[in-house]
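Input record, target 12 of the design panel.
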């Protein structure tokens, strides 16, 4: 079979599946349309291989290493995608995100368990191609075919594994895309909440310095273990204000006249006392 014929089959399959991708369907409807299409094309390719064979061992290796795995990978992926969507929980975004994360871990576990063969696939190695991708080759004992009944004359030791690795990589990419969607949605939601609840210090920065030193000197945070710099940084970050260097600010306060050294705290005290007096009147 000529390489151009094989490539044409792949192009036809990708084109027809692209049409399905463009249509909003349920998982069941998608599987009902995609599987018969893939099965038909695989059957046509199988017949072509049976009738024409290959002009060389290089052509046979190319077909079973590059072409057939892509055909079967589509079949495997459609089933994986169907199962994923049907098993996804109906619940909160957090529940669905956790489900996708668990599924992603299973994909990576597969790659780890079959690390030897997966790395051969992933790195584009070719040293064992004569053993892995020729139909008449005798596979080493390390190979464990996963096809219960491999099609006679249409299977090699590794073509199905390559198809599986392709399909699981597509599933991995799909899961990562979904998780990215949820992470983006979370960031947007968090950003929105932060904007809605954002508080900004609009008074004089020196007044906040008085407050910061009052908190620090009376040990109100972390059992008195938080430093003045930490407290000021926290206030700056959460109240969106630039306080400046703590020591210089302290010098500014210390240089005031004695009667008004902590005028902001005195002002706070007076305002609180007035409020209490008004309520008790």
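The sequence produced for target 12 reads:
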């Amino acid at each position: 079979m000529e390489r151009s014929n094989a490539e044409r089959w792949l192009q036809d399959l990708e084109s027809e599946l692209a049409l399905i991708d463009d249509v909003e369907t349920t998982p069941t409807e998608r599987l009902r349309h995609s599987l018969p299409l893939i099965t038909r094309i695989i059957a046509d390719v199988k017949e072509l291989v049976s009738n024409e064979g290959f002009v060389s061992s290089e052509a046979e290796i190319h077909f079973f290493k590059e072409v057939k795995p892509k055909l079967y990978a589509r079949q495997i992926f459609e089933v994986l995608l169907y199962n994923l969507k049907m098993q996804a929980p109906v619940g909160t975004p957090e529940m669905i995100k956790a489900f996708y994360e668990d599924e992603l871990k299973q994909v990576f576990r597969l790659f780890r368990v079959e690390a030897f063969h997966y790395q051969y696939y992933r790195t584009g190695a070719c040293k064992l191609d004569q053993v892995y991708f020729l139909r008449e080759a005798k596979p080493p004992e390390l190979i464990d075919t996963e096809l219960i009944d491999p099609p006679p004359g249409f299977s090699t030791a590794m073509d199905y594994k390559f198809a599986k690795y392709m399909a699981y990589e597509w599933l991995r990419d799909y899961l990562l895309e979904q998780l990215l969607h949820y992470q983006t949605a979370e960031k947007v939601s968090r950003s929105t909440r932060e904007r809605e609840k954002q508080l900004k210090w609009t008074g004089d920065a020196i007044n906040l310095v008085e407050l910061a030193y009052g908190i620090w000197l009376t040990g109100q945070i972390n059992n008195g273990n938080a430093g003045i710099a930490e407290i000021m940084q926290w206030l700056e970050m959460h109240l969106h204000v630039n306080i400046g260097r703590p020591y210089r600010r302290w010098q500014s306060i210390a240089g005031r006249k004695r009667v008004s050294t902590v005028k902001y705290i005195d002002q706070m005290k007076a305002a609180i006392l007035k409020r209490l007096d008004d309520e008790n009147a």
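The chain has a mean pLDDT of 85.
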